Amino acid sequence: QSVLTQPPSVSAAPGQKVAISCSGSSSNIGSNYVSWYQQLPGTAPRLLIYDNDERPSGIPDRISGSKSGTSATLGITGLQTGDEAVYYCGAWDSSLSAVVFGGGSQLTVL
Amino acid sequence: QVQLMESGGGVVQPGRSLRLSCAASGFAFGVFSMTWVRQAPGKGLEWVTVISHDGGSVHYADSVKGRFTISRDNSKNTLNLQMNSLRPEDSAVYYCVRIGYGYDFGGGFDPWGQGTLVTVSS
User: Fold this and answer.
1) Are B37 and B31 in contact (CB under 8 A)?
2) Of the candidates B45, B81, B51, B32, which has an alpha carbon nearest to the alpha carbon of residue A100?
């Protein structure tokens, strides 16, 4: 049981957009920054978003992040088959003094 | 370029110890906090431990507290994870990760090493 809650799977058609949610509590998302990661099959995760809505260099602007209260959302527009991957959210939890992750969301581009 | 290369994984019996190392290159290692994240086969990401840039602050997941010890040698650009009293549930790919962005230990983890597989089995 993950501390952060994500939908196990999401899907959308090529060219469309998708939103992946991440729900937490006041001790993690509610009071700390959220990061998002993409893990393609057989590879290490890759950072997509940090500090709720910041993109590292090299991440396209069709990838976005937002946070409201104790929830965060990863948005991807212009979906491509290459976006099929598992997406994870993560944040520091001040009560646990630990980093917590969501269980991951499998994105399928139909 | 920035690189993280883990080593030390393998097969070990329950109750035994293993030491993982991570060689960092291409960046000022002593400036960044570092962390270990693991992933059991077919499962999600599980954070293990973090160490501040100067080693002065460390934190552990409850699942490894008292058994695992993180350390770093900034003169050798090396991160270590000493794992004692290993259990079958510790079996996973262990990733060495730089906290490359953000303001706290939960900040952006980037980059990730390629991972090293630890299998705890009799």
Assistant:
1) no
2) B45
Q: Which two tokens stand for residue A50?
A: 């940090």
Mean pLDDT calculated for residue range B7-12: 97
Contact A51 B108 (CB under 8 A): yes
Structure tokens at B4: 């993280």
Which residue type occupies A11?
A: S
Distances from the Cα of B75 to the Cα of A28, A37, A55, B24, angstroms:
34, 30, 31, 11
Other Cβ atoms within 10 Å of A86 Cβ, number: 20
| Phi-psi group of A92: left, alpha or beta (phi > 0 → left; psi -120 to 50 → alpha; rest → beta) | beta
Tens-digit pLDDT profile for residues B83-111: 999 999 999 999 999 998 887 888 899 99
If pLDDT is split at 50, 70 and 90, which confidence band does A42 have?
very high
Give the closest of B35, B105, B108 to A47, CB-based: B108
Number of other CB atoms surrounding residue B92 within 10 Å: 22
How high is the pLDDT of residue B109?
96
Q: Which residues of A touch B105 (CB under 8 A)?
A: 92, 99
B24-53 residue pLDDT tens = 999 999 999 999 999 999 999 999 999 999
Tokens 């952006």 correspond to B108
